[in-house]
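The freezer alarm interrupted the setup, so I double-checked each line after restarting. Inputs confirmed:
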Amino acid sequence: MIRIEDSVITAQTLEGRLAGEKQVEICSRAKLTPSAQDFLRDQGVEVVRREAGGEAPRSPVVRQADPVAVPGSRKAFAGIFCPNIVIFDGQGKINYPEMERYVNWLIESGIQGLYPNGSTGEFVRLSWEERQDVVRLISEVNQGRVPVLAGASEANLRDVLKMAEFYASIGGVDAISLVPPYYYKISDESLFEYFAEIAEESPLDILLYNIPQFTQEISLELMERLLPYERIFGTKDSSRDQPRLINTMYRLRAVRPDYVVLVGCEEILLPSVMMGASGGTIATSGIIPEVIVELYEKARSGDIERARALQYRILDLINLMLLGINFPEGFKTGVAARGFDVGPARASTSAAEQEYLLKLESQINCVLADMGYDVRGPRACPVTNLPPIVGR
Amino acid sequence: MIRIEDSVITAQTLEGRLAGEKQVEICSRAKLTPSAQDFLRDQGVEVVRREAGGEAPRSPVVRQADPVAVPGSRKAFAGIFCPNIVIFDGQGKINYPEMERYVNWLIESGIQGLYPNGSTGEFVRLSWEERQDVVRLISEVNQGRVPVLAGASEANLRDVLKMAEFYASIGGVDAISLVPPYYYKISDESLFEYFAEIAEESPLDILLYNIPQFTQEISLELMERLLPYERIFGTKDSSRDQPRLINTMYRLRAVRPDYVVLVGCEEILLPSVMMGASGGTIATSGIIPEVIVELYEKARSGDIERARALQYRILDLINLMLLGINFPEGFKTGVAARGFDVGPARASTSAAEQEYLLKLESQINCVLADMGYDVRGPRACPVTNLPPIVGR
Amino acid sequence: MIRIEDSVITAQTLEGRLAGEKQVEICSRAKLTPSAQDFLRDQGVEVVRREAGGEAPRSPVVRQADPVAVPGSRKAFAGIFCPNIVIFDGQGKINYPEMERYVNWLIESGIQGLYPNGSTGEFVRLSWEERQDVVRLISEVNQGRVPVLAGASEANLRDVLKMAEFYASIGGVDAISLVPPYYYKISDESLFEYFAEIAEESPLDILLYNIPQFTQEISLELMERLLPYERIFGTKDSSRDQPRLINTMYRLRAVRPDYVVLVGCEEILLPSVMMGASGGTIATSGIIPEVIVELYEKARSGDIERARALQYRILDLINLMLLGINFPEGFKTGVAARGFDVGPARASTSAAEQEYLLKLESQINCVLADMGYDVRGPRACPVTNLPPIVGR
Amino acid sequence: MIRIEDSVITAQTLEGRLAGEKQVEICSRAKLTPSAQDFLRDQGVEVVRREAGGEAPRSPVVRQADPVAVPGSRKAFAGIFCPNIVIFDGQGKINYPEMERYVNWLIESGIQGLYPNGSTGEFVRLSWEERQDVVRLISEVNQGRVPVLAGASEANLRDVLKMAEFYASIGGVDAISLVPPYYYKISDESLFEYFAEIAEESPLDILLYNIPQFTQEISLELMERLLPYERIFGTKDSSRDQPRLINTMYRLRAVRPDYVVLVGCEEILLPSVMMGASGGTIATSGIIPEVIVELYEKARSGDIERARALQYRILDLINLMLLGINFPEGFKTGVAARGFDVGPARASTSAAEQEYLLKLESQINCVLADMGYDVRGPRACPVTNLPPIVGR
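Predicted 3D structure, all chains:
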């Protein structure tokens, strides 16, 4: 019999350590992830749990005390996380070199965190392998420079855990974000079970991702019920619902003062940070990272006047990228305007929509020029002659 | 033939001035309101419009230039407008003495405007005459101390104009607020016509009231199209949609810098004022006027820290009054907690709900005590021992 | 002291019978309507209730047994009820002569019931007095030939009862239909109280009117809870929700086998009647009464083939009238196509929409001609050369 | 150079036929599926299209004429298709033997088609491989006895085509059903492109699956625009919207008289078939196949009385399985009541919900007994003593 001391045991943990053994002893409270269970069953290996005397019955309270669930050194989740787009080549495959150039530019521009496989990252339009490839790429390019939040929002619990295990196995991912399972709506009771089970088994920390535009809402009451699970250390809220966001900070931080709240709506970045948000996952930061980071810093430091000026100056750009075109094509066009070859859309796009995107790029260029950016492309619209907000 | 020079002519204008005459001469561009038209038809009076040469054909541009549409001296619409509740007596009739006591208290507490017949004022649960009585009472008690915004949201255009004419006739009302016609949904094209017609004929200035929870939304595009009508000088937005509110200020003030924007959502009063809102119609100001006015003043003056502390301290009270009970019964219970005899509910209320309201009053008392108010009633819940935000 | 034996006493009952008396004796369980209560208070009259021994305490069970609530001879509510439009003259006032001609034509064409002040009748766009005038006109023209269901959907309980009392006072109205109070949403608990109070006090029988497109839904559970109130004898469902309609008949008729269910959706008239609906309130019956009545009769008698052919043949007409234009303007245009001078729209209508209505009338004419009607107006679209469904 | 004559060429087509060749000649209008393109690129193989003279430029009209798009011998899609549940074993894996026993029982009970990977089949809760395994199992057990419609609703176009190619490669699948891509909403323009691209490249015929409860609606206008694509031969509509279903049959069959319309809502099976629906995908047919098939047959043959009796008798069962519990757990409980060991839920389920399912099974048993089934389990509720609708 072989003995494994890990508190969370994945298939990766087991591979190459069994050495033909058909019995393995593990800690009484160790978690076997689904991949590990499958692996053991396939190999015909028997599991023995070593009883360590006086073990308390499993309960929510115990769950909290579980050393697995108390990560020792969580990276600070504050500031602007960029939910990066995915760049494709002429054949519709991921364009790794251009992605690398883009991600380096984001980090060098001051972005405080990376966020692959978010909604902006079109995760559902990628294959399982592509989702893994994107996160691997981000991790490798990042080299630990900024924290990485990776979307692990698969359609079912097993796939979520498999993906989380993969992220944990490659290193470089600091936490995962999670929407409710999509397609079906389920009861809040079931949704609680869903997140609780993942919180118990995930090898990585978790941010609850609320985006009722695309899947069912995570009610504030449900978030409160999930507070005992330390794995869940915060939320990323893209609901565009400021009253909700303020109540989120008020109610959840009354219990866990360090609960992370990231706002996922660019139009309300200043009000949200001013009210205490930890930062934001802001797609616009993929286009004008300097401005969004400055907006955040000024909001943090109380320079409301400058922050407000910036918040209003970016509205045209946001509206151009957000409205009138399928999400996130407008944002990809914005990245193109900054000089990256974003390649073709992955989503089905009609000829009329492709033409619209060309016009949009021209308008975005104009707005960027008006902000003070050195835009080389054509400029289709009249500028406002407002003072630049970025240096030329 | 008698001649009348007024540019807007109502039935009131005509009464007592015709002296049996069967012909009346009016200015070529004078407006005859529906009540005036009815009056003239009923009396069999013929109308002659004096042609003044070179009159431009009616057009949107002309409409803007219309002296009728350019009010000379509009009162400042800024700060906290209190959408007052209506107080009933034991027989379910309006309790005028207690209403008077309440309104005086609001003004003395620093409220910067009054707002009868808003949603908080249960206008649809009052009869036509009661709606008139409430506004008359407010006007008489106010005596011009603060501006009065009166809801004139009837279900159809004719009734709106009739009510606006009534308000104009009694004096003391500075502007009306208007929701889209309720019950039916109509096209944006028709909604434009609706507001345009009222803007042309109303004797009072108009705030567009957006409250998609109760009736159809007024899109921002529609508000932009209505900008040429100077009668419409602003909006009151209760949509709880902060991104929309910020875009409203951005887009409408680009054309009309003095466009009034009042926020109608208590949870986001600070962010809204910080972003430039003119003020708010805040139901909670009917319960804790001193705190809401201070919050507004601090937000205006840039004392973000104090304003934020106040904004967070009032959330419990707001949630107690807003959730779990039909609107606006929670707010009426809040007013009762401040020592006014609000009387029975006008809306149908079950025994269970009545019992809930008693419990709610006790909870509200507790929260008020925690804020520093001298509450005399029972105190059911534990206080937080936070520092008081109002003097005892 | 004067004595009044009526079981429901309205202001009308009292007027002219008190003869200066300041005391009135009534039955111990007689209902005093709000108008009567107001009247008595205003006149300073004291009410004495004669105790008749052993009176049971008021309870839901007693309510059922209340003779007031058990109407002796309710007219059959079956077949096609026409929710009539309102016809205006050139000055925007109700055109009584043309209305009379129209209503007579409807009855002569075989319509089995009349339904003024429905949604098709634009009740919220009429003044209080106009709503009364419409019902008075219908009653007088009808002279009892067919049952009359009159909408009494005011925005609040007191106005509903006042209107119901008015209907009762003029005679000729067999029942009222009632939506939930509009504008505000209220809890189901409150909505139960609302309908229960009206059921207890209304002098007329009641159909619950479900139309979630315009105001809050009346859940099937709520309808079940209201079954003990015999005043409420059925429902008119315009939700377009066939599964709901089938469950309505299944669940409510299990308790009250004669519960009336009228469908208010023209596209599913055949399936609904085939499944057991009592009939329908079908706006299209105001345009092609012969066809709709025949469709109903054939569905009732089991001639599915003919009924199906009719149901499909009317779809083009329905879609033309229902889609692309504010409700109910399309239906008014349909009535115009049948030769009635429907006059101008009451609702605000843009020039573009007015032009559209002209085009629509031409298209409707074409469809009517294709059905076999002798259309005299222009015919803009190619006909299908299907066999006529009405005689020329 | 090797030559391949197939009109649709997948990776499977190519494997084993290139024999090291680095050039392949194909027909000028042959389709290379994404998997084939990937395969060729990975192998470094060049493709030569043989020009056959006078080839028309690719256009929608040509698309219609494409022999690929005109399947020669499509199986009849009529009657009751059973959207089968998936049965798991104690370890949460698919229980193949019990699935086999269940599918055989369905076919022997008269089911007219099978429908794996529908919403009832929890396709999003299965892994990619499990979805393939389920369809392979169904095909193998079926052995061509009834037509098989397989859900291929992946979240993106490439995965849809990969899955369709897989289905085509194993044989035994007659058509696929397709919802719009889920999670994101896209414009109707893009949705048209999405379905058009799949219609051009799919090796299997397609039913458009409308289920707005779970993902965006496919408008009727969009379905009309897709009529030229012969690959798309019908729709399966689970919207519960009878007016829409009737208009679907009316408008689409005017162009393509054999357009297949399957209703996916059990409560309206009779009305839908009576109005002309080709049949239904009815989850309840997985529990009482004999009754649902009889209902369909009687509706088809015009025995409305018997069909109506059956339709009403099954409502209790439907409501028990559909309401109060996450979909499709109620239906799985129904299958359990018929004697199959359905195993644990795949979806997260709380202890309270598990307890509810036990109670539900007892209630279902009671309803089944009342219908005349020989139920062996406990019977918790009183029966109605209605005549049985199935033989004992």
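Quick read of the result. The CA atoms of residues 206 and 232 of chain C lie 5 Å apart.
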